[in-house]
Amino acid sequence: MASDPSDYTDFNWDDITPVPQDDGVNPLVQIMYSDDYKQATSLLRAVMAKHEYSPRALALTEDIIETNSAHYTVWHYRLEILKHLKITAVPKENWLPSAFKQNVNHEFAIDGAFDSLDDEILEDYIWLNETTEATAKNYQIWHYRQLLKPSPKANPLFRKLYFAMERFVVELVLSNDAKNYHAWSHLQWLAKNTPPEFRLQLDEEIEYTTFLLSQDVYNNSAWAYRYFILPEAASPELLEREIGYVHFAITEVPQNEASWNYFVGLYERFYFSQADKSTDALAALEEFCLRFAPIDQPGLTEEVVFRSTHALETLVTIYEKQKKVDKARKVLGLLETYIPIRKGYWAYKTKQLEAVN
Questions:
Q1: Which of 12, 48, 257, 306 has its CA 20 to 30 A from that of 213?
Q2: Residues 159 and 135 in one domain
Q3: 349 pLDDT exceeds 80?
Q4: Which of 231, 223, 227 is nearest to 250 (CA)?
Q5: Sorted alphabetically, which InterPro entries does this protein's record hold (predicted)?
């Protein structure tokens, strides 16, 4: 890539005897690697056998990863090289890409971030970020980024920069692919592993998911992350605000499973488990569902039912908890009539009602 100061071919390899891949005699399905890739991986086997941790070996891993970013053995070897080379591994200016520096300079100064880092790992983030963008659906690269996490004893500013860098890259990837599973998993990892002093405020996290949902209200990953970041001791004010937000989202798009899952999840997590809140919460949830699924309306039509089948399913849950078996059966009968493809599931749910006391 453009940021790479040197290619592995710029180094002298005369002292290394390449080790070709051994596919055995008469392989049945031989992969047709390019000559360049075969040359690079033959050198890789040789230097790995020698346990060589050098700048040329580092450059070699870079070349192979750019060709095959899913090669987890090379990622592991690269990490081992960085651990041995430590702060001499890459130029410090390569650790802070210009786009990232422009993003964080207004938040905190970066002077002194590299002081006292003798035992920490430095990676070429210019190269790594470009590679992440180019292969963002690659599991190995996200796991590798997590393994670069500084130790708790590292320079606090260096640690802060690391977590800011990871957040920056996740948001960059999600700006291009808002449903990238690996990026969302990495964001959850950051939420769990970023020290409290370096984390975004809860309001900032919620604002970020609100932004993504304003672009695509069906983005289940954004809803799931929003649910994930809510604290167990969420304040009544926060929960009231969240319920108001999801009311709006469902009213705008009633047939959206993601928003309904979030909505019901809020009630299950914060209300139904508390006896003093459960009765009122069930009544409020029922009232909201009936706006979209008026089951007592004469001449209920298919058009009304399909305005929000998720409201109907939620009503089944409510009536089960309220022990209103007849009402639950009525709703399940509607679902079986209008969504016969799930007939077996509706029958299973109806059978479960026999255990409701």
A1: 306
A2: yes
A3: yes
A4: 223
A5: Prenyl_trans_a
